[in-house]
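Q: Got a minute? One more chain.
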Amino acid sequence: MLQNLGRIVLRTIIRFRYAMIVCCCAVAFAEPLMVGVAEVDITPPVGNRMSGYFHERLSTAVHDPLHARAIVFQQGEERGAIVVCELVGVPVDATQPARKRAAEQTGIPVENILVSATHTHTGADYFGARFAYCKELAIAEHGTDPHEAVPYIDTLTDAIATVIERAESARAPVSVRAGVATQEGLAFNRRFHMKEGPVRFNPGKQNPDIVRPAGPTDPAVPMIVFESLDQERPDALLTAFALHLDTVGGTEYAADYPYYMASVIREEHADLIPIFAIGTAGDINHIDVSTKTPQKGHEEAKRIGDALGATMAEALDELPSVKEPSFAAQTESVALPLQQYSEEEVAYALANRAKIVDDSVPFLERVRLYKIIDLEMRGEDAIAVDVQAFRLGPDVAIVGLPGEIFVDLGLALKEASPFQTTLIITLANDYCGYVPTRKAFEEGSYETVNSRVQPGGGEKLVEAAVRMLIRLAE
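A: Always. Here it is, folded:
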C-alpha cells in the first residue's frame, strides 16, 4: 500500500509541477506531443522533362499539381521531421543540403530529418544519367537548355527546407490514433516464374507461359492520424502502401493514384492533409495479368485511388488511440557496397550513351548501360545511406529506407518489428535504385539489372532498422 501511495505521489509531482527530475522517461511522456504540418507546390514548369521512362519526355500540361508535404514532431527535447515529395525520387544532392538548411533554421537534428518521394512517374526528371545526357544534347544544340531554364534541383532543395520550416512553425499539441487497414486486389507482384527461362518482370497480360508470381504482395495500409487537441479534428494522416505509382503515363504532370485517394478522404475531412508515402514496392505494380483489361491512364489511377481512399476512410474513424505518445528517433549509417564494372565496360557504356534513349536498342541493354553510367557518375565503391526509425508510442513506429525496396524485405522487417503498427517509407534521403533480395538477384530480370547495390544490401538495411526498432521499444 505504501509503495502504491509513493507511486501516486511521484506521478503527481511529475505531471503537475515538473519540479523533480526523477525519471527522464516519465518526464518525456508527460510532455505533450507537438506536431506541425505543411505543404508546398513543387510542380515544375510545363516544358520541362518528365521522369519515369527510358526516353526523353517533355511535359505539356499539369493534370494535378505536385506537392512536398512535411510533418514535424516535438516532444520535450526530442524532435524530428518527415517530408514526402511527389516525385520519382529525391537524390542525396537535394536531400543533403535541404536537411542541413532545415536543421540550421529549426534546430531539428539533421539525422532526424527524413526526405522521401512517392515515386510518381509523371513528375520532374532532374537527376541521373539519362537526364544529364539529354541536358547535354540540348545545350549543344541551343546553347542553353530550353527544357530547364532554372535548375529544378535547386528549386526543390529550397522547397524541402521551406516546407519543414513552415511545419515547424505550425506545431501544436496533438493526440494520435494509429492502426493498419487491409487493401486487397490493387497490388500485384510483377515478377513471374515462366514455363521456360528465368524470372521475368511484366511478362504481359494473359501470357500462357506464366507459371506463378515470384514473390508476394503487402496488402497492409498503416495509418497514423494526428488530431489537434484544441480543435478536435484530424489535422494530418500519414500512410504508406506498397504499390508503384506508374498508372498514368502521358505528358501531364500528375501525382498518380494518391491524388484520388486524398480526394476521397477529404470528402469527409476537408481540412485534413493526407501524406502518402510509398512502401516496399520495388517489385509491386498494379497490373493484373489474369485479365485483358487495359490498365493505364487517369481512369486507372482514379480506380485505384478511389478504392484505396474508401478503405482508408472507412478505417479512419475506428483507429485506436495511442494512449501515451512518446516520440523518439534513431538513425544508423549503413555502408552499401555498389556493383563494380571493368574499365572496358565503363568505357563502352560512356561511348554508347545515346543508346539509353534509343527505343530500337533492346530494353535491358539500355537499362544496363544507364546503370553503369550512373554508377560511374557516383564514383564510389560504396555509399553510406541513412536508415531511420521514429517511435510515436508503445505500438507505433515509422522506418525510413533508401531506394526501391523489394516487398519481401518490408514484410521481413514488419515481422521482426516489436511495434504493432510499423509504417515503412522508402526512397528516403537518397535514390540508390532498386534494392532486391538475395533471392531476386539470383533470379535476375529488370530490377536486378537496374540495381546499383550488391546482393545482400537490402538485408543489411532491414537488420539496421530492426536493431533500432528494438532499442526504441525498450
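A: Residues 1-29 have pLDDT under 50 and may be disordered.
Q: Perfect, thanks.
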